[in-house]
Amino acid sequence: MTDIVKILIVDDHRLIINGIRTMLEDVDDIEIVAEASNGDDAILRVREHPEIQVVLMDVKMPKKDGVEATRELMQEHTKLKIMALTMFEEDKYVSSMLQAGAIGYVLKHTSKSELIAAIRKVNEGEPYFSHDIARLVMTRYLTNMLPPSTVATRLGTDGGMELTDREAEILKLIASQLTNQEIAERLYISPRTVHSHRRNLMQKIGVKNTAGLVRYAIENGIV
């Protein structure tokens, strides 16, 4: 039997909450346990319902906003998974939510199928971002973490994304059947960083699993 994901919806607009309920009411493995209209209410609801696993958190709300609520919830409930569900796609909001502890960021105009997929992924502890947000996060990462010359070669004039030297190196090691731990030891980075690269590679290349990465590496002469 499939485990049911228990969720909390946090939004100050009743119309949004009702819309999400309608979208999810026929999904067998997702159950809306509670709802809240602001950050303070969200904290109370999680305390009242310790079975909650995933929180769909609006960003801008009265009293306590989504950023502060996320920060407090993550301090109190370290295993909780929080995903922003908002209309705001500016970098400042994305950065604030991620720094507060959210592991997902989805825009409110998302489709039903994407919202369901996002909830399932986040519940498994995997990051999930709407397409536009993923590109924003990746661009900011490149700008802040990589040398300017690398960023320039990565961001093409046509908007396409190419693999960095580091990504190509990790992809080659993945295709050589090394585990995340083995790759981390070889490159002197953390297994979590390797996992993030693996997920980013799958999203960028457009494959669903490691087999797809290996096939891409072979077809493009990386191994």
Q: What is the gist of this entry?
A:
The chain is an alpha/beta fold and 223 residues long.
SSE order and pairing:
Blueprint: E1 5-10, H1 14-24, E2 30-36, H2 39-48, E3 54-57, H3 66-76, E4 81-86, H4 91-100, E5 104-107, H5 112-123, E6 128-129, H6 131-145, H7 148-154, H8 165-175, H9 180-187, H10 191-205, H11 210-219
Parallel strand pairs: 1-2, 1-3, 3-4, 4-5, 5-6
Helix pairs in contact: 2-3, 3-4, 8-10, 8-11, 9-10, 10-11
What does this structure look like?
- The protein is an alpha/beta fold and 223 residues long.
- It folds into two domains: 5-135, Response regulator (Rossmann fold), CATH 3.40.50; 146-219, Winged helix-like DNA-binding domain superfamily/Winged helix DNA-binding domain (Arc Repressor Mutant, subunit A).
- Helix content is 54%, strand content 13%.
- A six-stranded parallel sheet has the order 2-1-3-4-5-6, with helices on both faces.
- Helix 5 (112-123) links the parallel strand 5 (104-107) and strand 6.
- The longest helix has 15 residues, at 131-145.
- It is elongated.
- The relative contact order is 0.08.
- The model is unreliable at 145-160 (pLDDT under 50).
